[in-house]
Write a structure and sequence with these properties.
It is a single chain. By secondary structure, the chain is mainly beta. The chain has helices at 34-40, 168-171, and strands spanning 3-7, 14-18, 21-23, 26-28, 49-56, 60-66, 73-79, 81-88, 99-105, 111-114, 118-124, 128-135, 144-146. Strands 1-2-10-7-12-5 form a six-stranded antiparallel beta sheet, with no helix packed on it. The protein has a five-stranded antiparallel beta sheet with strand order 9-8-11-6-13, with no helix packed on it. The chain has a two-stranded antiparallel sheet with strand order 3-4. It is globular, with a radius of gyration of 16 Å.
Length: 183
């Protein structure tokens, strides 16, 4: 197998570490293999859209989700470093409101699988970061929702000592107690 998979504090959210083949010329790795993903991470997943964002240091995006057309996301960083977070927002889950976070970087080549039913966000720790992700459903702006990044009831331990740069939708996100959540 070309990937190693480990669980986070949220068992459904997985860290994927590819086998990297490197020498003096550079490196090579498979960033996605459908067969291995189905065997080791999640069966029956079909990705329909790839997204690419670039953000400056201190930008925090999230915590995003779609209340209808829930998206699973396979995320990675190809430039820089981010702290990436998933929050379980399934009311029927024993881990409702719990979070898991991991540093993703161009150097560690880690990916994070965030299945449908979770809110997702990240903060850029390097001068800039390019963030790539595959989604299991298309983007529907009318169904997009945001939970505020610093909701005390969730208690995410963001590894930052600065006030993050936020889009209006993230600054105005709802508290988990007020947010539309999954059943």
């Amino acid at each position: 197998m070309a990937i190693q998979v480990s669980a986070t504090a949220l068992p459904e959210v997985k860290i994927i570490e590819p086998k990297v083949f490197g020498d003096a010329r550079g490196y090579f790795y498979e960033s996605f293999n459908a067969r291995e993903f189905a065997e080791l991470v999640a069966r029956g997943v079909e990705f329909v859209q790839d997204n690419h964002s670039r953000s400056a240091r201190g930008v925090l995006r999230g915590l995003h989700y779609q209340i209808e057309h829930a998206q699973g996301k396979l995320v990675r960083v190809v430039e820089g470093e981010v702290f990436d977070v998933a929050v379980d927002i399934r009311k029927s889950s024993p881990r409702f409101g719990k979070w898991a976070g991991v540093k993703l970087s161009a150097e560690n080549h880690r990916q994070l699988w965030v299945p449908p039913g979770f809110a997702h966000g990240f903060v850029v720790l390097s001068d800039s970061a390019q963030f790539l992700y595959k989604t299991t459903d298309y983007w529907y702006p009318e169904h997009e929702r945001s939970i505020v990044w610093n909701d005390e009831s969730i208690g995410i331990e963001w590894p930052i000592d600065f006030e993050p740069v936020l889009a209006a939708k993230d600054r105005d996100g709802k508290r988990l107690s007020e947010a539309e959540c999954y059943v």
